[in-house]
From TrEMBL:
Record-linked CDD domains: GT_2_like_c
The organism of origin for this protein: Mycetocola miduiensis
Protein name per UniProt: Glycosyltransferase, GT2 family
Family statement: Belongs to the glycosyltransferase 2 family.
Pathway assignment: Cell wall biogenesis; cell wall polysaccharide biosynthesis
Presence of the UniProt keyword Hydrolase in the record: no
């Protein structure tokens, strides 16, 4: 007899996440309410005891992996999960409020909805601005460069976080995804390794008729930076933004995007952000780029 599919398959990728992962897992029973669910954690070669902590628990399936990126880890966790109607993508440094997943699940059941993002707060209880506009040439520098919200991908207006509505995309710390949408897109694009995979996913989903919807009815907390930040990860972030834009807008406009990215990073470097000097070098010298991206042979990364 074929088992009945679960409602939600929760998937997490850890990398040196021992400080946070227990709190996330402890929050899940109340967060799931009456939904049937599973939890799979893929560990990307942690060295801090994360795997030992996970393997002492009975409420999670642990998959050990090499570190071949966040997107690859999520896809691997989905493959290791039992059949479910929806996939709950979680960062290890997040926690979910009680009954938050049923609220997201209800929104996901609306026709045409492929991705649902909840209202997120930071560890101090402040609203986290997780909603984003699609990338454009005018939004390369964002608020840090222009000071005008019109030219920012990030949506800072607090009134935009009050009611449920469709968005271009939302940051990927907590996302509920329709399994049919996930399969139709072939999962997350593993070529990004880290950063931009959630942007790419929501934009590709919209291309196929799947909406991303924000709902304030579901709440969560996200600390951010749980696995650390460095010059290398900042470089990945900026390179992946260029790669994503090139794939969607073509080479001619991508060269403009690349040039504007250089100006943004130069300004940041001059203002004291030391990691931006490394990023500038990597933008002009492909051999210095993180090899995981496979973007080291041409000035304009693909």
């Amino acid at each position: 007899m074929t088992p009945t599919p679960l409602d939600v398959a929760a998937v997490v990728v850890t990398y040196n996440s021992s400080r946070h992962i227990a709190a996330l897992l402890d929050s899940l029973p109340e967060a799931m309410g009456d939904l049937g669910y599973s939890v799979v954690v893929v560990d990307n070669a942690s060295t801090d005891g994360t795997v030992d902590l996970l393997e002492r628990r009975s409420d999670v399936t642990v998959v050990r992996s090499i570190n071949d990126g966040y997107a690859a880890g999520i896809n691997r966790a989905v493959r290791a999960s039992p059949e479910a109607s929806a996939i709950l993508i979680l960062n290890p440094d997040a926690t979910l409020d009680p009954e938050s997943v049923p609220q997201m699940f209800h929104t996901l059941r609306r026709p045409g909805v492929g991705v649902v993002a909840p209202r997120v707060r930071d560890q101090h209880g402040r609203l986290a601005r997780t909603l984003r506009r699609r990338p454009t040439l005018g939004r390369v520098g964002g608020l840090s460069f222009t000071g005008l919200s019109l030219f920012a991908e990030r949506i800072d207006d607090a009134s935009r976080y009050v009611s449920e509505h469709e968005v271009d995309w939302a940051t990927g710390a907590i996302l509920l995804v329709d399994r049919r949408c996930f399969d139709e897109l072939g999962g997350l694009d593993e070529s990004f390794f880290l950063y931009s995979e959630e942007t790419d996913f929501s934009l590709r989903a919209r291309d196929l008729g799947w909406a991303t919807v924000y709902t304030p009815k579901a709440g969560a907390m996200h600390i951010g930076g749980g696995s650390g930040e460095s010059a290398a990860t900042h470089t990945m972030l900026m390179l992946n933004r260029v790669r994503l834009y090139r794939r969607r807008a073509g080479d001619a406009r991508a060269w403009l995007y690349f040039g504007l990215t250089v100006l943004v990073e130069l300004r940041r470097a001059i203002l004291g952000q030391r990691r931006s000097w490394w990023t500038l070098k990597a933008l002009f010298r492909p051999s210095l780029r993180p090899p995981q991206l496979g973007a080291s042979t041409a000035i304009l990364p693909r």
